C-alpha cells in the first residue's frame, strides 16, 4: 500500500492528464492504468465557449483522488494562489507544488518550491512537492513536513529516463515519507527502474499520452511499476565481475 | 455593466446581481469552475451571495489536463 498523508492507494502509478489525442483514448488509458490519482492543471476558462468539454465530465469522480498542480507559478505566492483556486473546486485532495525556475529545462526553482511547500503546509494542504534530484533539498522538504517527495527523473516531458539513479537512491534511502519519481520517464523500463531503486511510486504523463498507443502504454506502465516494485521487495542479486554457473559442476556426463 | 473577466473587458446588458447569475448568463451553469472575485477566491456556496458590481475583476478558472 502506498500511503500519502491520510490517503492509501493500491496503485503506485500516479497519472497526468495532459496532451492525450482525445478524451476517449484518455479515458481508456486511465482505466487500463488502474491509477487512483490523477493530476490536473488550473487554467483560465474560455468564458465565450460554454460547450467546451472537460475531461472531468468523462470520468467517475468517486474513483479517483485529485492532485492538482501549481504549474504556471513562478514563485511561492503564485503557487499558493493556484493551490487555493484548486481547493475551492472541492476536487483537491492533495496539491503538487510545481514552481518552475527555468523555461528551457522546466527545472523547479528550489527556493520557491521550499517556500511554497512551507506556506501550503501551514494552510493545511497535503503537499507533494515536485523537486529536482537534489538530496539535501529533498531532506529539507521532508523536514518541513511534506507528505511525499517527488524528485524528477529528468526534465519534464523529455523522456530521458533516470539520469541520476545515485541521487534518487540517496533520496529514497533517507526519506521517511513516500518518494514518487515524477517527470522524465520515457518507457516502461524507466518506470520499473525507478521502482527497483525503491521509489514508492511513479508519476508520469507524456510517456503514456504521447505514446503511439496510449492505452497499451498505460497498461505497460502499470505492469512495469508492479514488476519493479516486486523486484525491489524480492531483492536483486549482487553484481559479480565474472560468471557464476547456474548448473552444477559435478556429474557432467562426458564420453571418455 | 462592465466587468473584467480573465483579463478581458466584458460589457453585460443583462441584469446580473451576483456571481451565480453571472455564471448562468455566461451559460456555464453545469461547468466545474472556480471564481476569484476581486482577488478573493469564492467557494461554490458563496456564488449566490456575492454581489457583482460595475468594474469588478473576475478570474474564472477550471481544471485542464496537466501532469
UniProtKB/TrEMBL annotation, chain A:
Principal place of residence: cytoplasm
Protein residues bound to 1-deoxy-D-xylulose 5-phosphate: 157, 183-184, 205-206
Enzyme class: transferase
Subcellular location: Cytoplasm
Keyword Ribosomal protein applies: no
Cited Pfam families: ThiG (PF05690)
EC number: 2.8.1.10
Biological processes per GO annotation: thiamine diphosphate biosynthetic process
Official protein name in the record: Thiazole synthase
Family: Belongs to the ThiG family.
Keyword annotations of the record: Cytoplasm, Schiff base, Thiamine biosynthesis, Transferase
SUPFAM superfamilies associated with the record: ThiG-like
A GO term from the CC aspect: cytoplasm
Catalytic residues (UniProt): 96 (schiff-base intermediate with dxp)
Subunit record text: Homotetramer. Forms heterodimers with either ThiH or ThiS.
Purpose of the protein: Catalyzes the rearrangement of 1-deoxy-D-xylulose 5-phosphate (DXP) to produce the thiazole phosphate moiety of thiamine. Sulfur is provided by the thiocarboxylate moiety of the carrier protein ThiS. In vitro, sulfur can be provided by H(2)S.
Gene encoding the protein: thiG
Enzymatic reactions: [ThiS sulfur-carrier protein]-C-terminal-Gly-aminoethanethioate + 2-iminoacetate + 1-deoxy-D-xylulose 5-phosphate = [ThiS sulfur-carrier protein]-C-terminal Gly-Gly + 2-[(2R,5Z)-2-carboxy-4-methylthiazol-5(2H)-ylidene]ethyl phosphate + 2 H2O + H(+)
GO molecular function (one): thiazole synthase activity
InterPro entries documented for this protein: Aldolase_TIM, Thiazole_synthase_ThiG, ThiG
All copies of domain Thiazole synthase ThiG, residue ranges: 3-248
Biological pathway: Cofactor biosynthesis; thiamine diphosphate biosynthesis
UniProtKB/TrEMBL annotation, chain B:
Pfam assignment, any one: ThiS
SUPFAM superfamilies on file: MoaD/ThiS
Signal peptide start and end residues: none
Sections of the chain in a coiled coil: none
This protein's name: Sulfur carrier protein
Native organism: Gracilibacillus ureilyticus
Organism taxonomic ancestry: Bacteria, Bacillati, Bacillota, Bacilli, Bacillales
Amino acid at each position: 500500500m502506498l500511503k500519502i498523508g491520510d490517503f492509501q492507494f493500491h496503485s503506485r502509478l500516479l497519472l497526468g492528464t495532459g496532451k492525450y489525442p482525445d478524451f476517449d483514448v484518455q479515458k481508456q488509458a486511465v482505466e487500463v492504468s488502474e491509477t487512483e490519482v490523477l493530476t490536473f492543471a488550473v487554467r483560465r476558462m474560455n468564458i465565450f465557449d460554454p460547450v467546451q468539454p472537460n475531461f472531468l465530465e468523462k470520468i467517475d469522480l468517486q474513483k479517483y483522488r485529485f492532485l492538482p498542480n501549481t504549474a504556471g507559478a513562478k514563485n511561492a505566492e503564485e503557487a499558493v494562489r493556484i493551490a487555493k483556486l484548486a481547493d475551492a473546486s472541492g476536487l483537491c485532495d492533495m496539491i503538487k507544488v510545481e514552481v518552475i525556475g527555468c523555461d528551457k529545462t522546466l527545472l523547479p526553482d528550489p527556493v520557491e518550491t521550499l517556500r511554497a511547500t512551507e506556506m501550503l503546509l501551514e494552510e493545511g494542504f497535503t503537499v507533494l512537492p515536485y523537486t529536482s534530484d537534489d538530496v539535501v533539498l529533498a531532506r529539507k522538504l521532508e523536514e518541513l513536513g511534506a507528505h511525499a517527495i517527488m524528485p524528477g527523473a529528468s526534465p519534464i516531458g523529455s523522456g530521458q529516463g533516470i539520469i541520476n539513479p545515485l541521487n534518487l537512491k540517496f533520496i529514497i534511502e533517507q526519506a521517511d515519507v513516500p518518494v514518487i519519481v515524477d517527470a522524465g520517464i520515457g518507457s516502461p523500463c524507466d518506470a520499473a527502474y525507478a521502482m527497483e531503486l525503491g521509489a514508492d511510486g511513479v508519476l508520469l504523463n507524456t510517456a503514456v499520452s504521447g505514446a503511439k498507443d496510449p492505452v497499451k502504454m498505460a497498461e505497460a506502465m502499470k505492469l512495469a511499476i508492479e514488476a519493479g516494485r516486486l523486484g525491489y521487495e524480492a531483492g536483486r542479486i549482487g553484481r559479480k565481475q565474472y560468471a557464476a554457473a547456474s548448473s552444477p559442476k559435478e556429474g557432467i556426463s562426458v564420453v571418455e | 455593466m462592465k466587468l473584467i473577466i480573465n483579463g478581458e473587458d466584458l460589457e453585460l446588458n443583462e441584469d446580473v446581481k451576483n456571481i451565480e447569475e453571472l455564471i448562468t448568463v455566461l451559460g456555464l451553469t453545469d461547468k466545474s469552475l472556480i471564481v476569484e472575485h476581486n482577488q478573493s477566491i469564492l467557494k461554490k456556496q458563496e456564488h449566490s451571495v456575492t454581489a457583482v458590481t460595475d468594474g469588478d475583476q473576475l478570474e474564472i478558472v477550471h481544471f485542464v489536463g496537466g501532469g
